[in-house]
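A reminder from the course coordinator: this example appears on the midterm review sheet, so study it carefully.

Given structure:
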């Protein structure tokens, strides 16, 4: 999920592979693979890989955490919308950002992010 890192606000911590951090000291992004399906338009050569990207606030007061994350989540979603490869094609897509509580008291958003991958035939 290397495409996500440059889109994150400065100072956010990125944790790949659904590792659970021992503590949340700063805004933390946890990425976990959710599922892989065939792309219906190209069933033999392309896959859609979906990740759950969880953004967790370090602030324990939910009202303050809401205020802190409100604009940042919107900015991140717009950055995902605008991420393009060198040919101008979208790199990432997202379908839902859902507010929740992470652990016992940290505000978080789960964002469903998808990436389309296509195999390239190898020459022998």
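Designed residues:
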């Amino acid at each position: 999920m290397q495409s996500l890192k440059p889109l994150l606000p400065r100072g956010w911590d990125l944790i790949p592979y659904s590792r659970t951090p021992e503590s949340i000291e700063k805004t933390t992004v946890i990425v976990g693979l959710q599922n892989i399906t065939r792309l219906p338009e190209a069933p033999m050569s392309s896959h859609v890989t979906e990740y759950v990207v969880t953004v967790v606030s370090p602030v324990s007061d939910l009202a303050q955490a809401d205020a802190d994350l409100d604009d940042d989540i919107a900015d991140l979603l717009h950055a995902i919308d605008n991420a393009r490869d060198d040919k101008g094609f979208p790199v990432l897509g997202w379908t839902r950002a859902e507010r929740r509580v992470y652990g016992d008291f940290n505000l978080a958003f789960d964002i469903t992010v998808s990436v389309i991958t296509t195999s390239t035939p190898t020459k022998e």
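The chain has a mean pLDDT of 89. Residues 39 and 63 are 40 Å apart (CA to CA).
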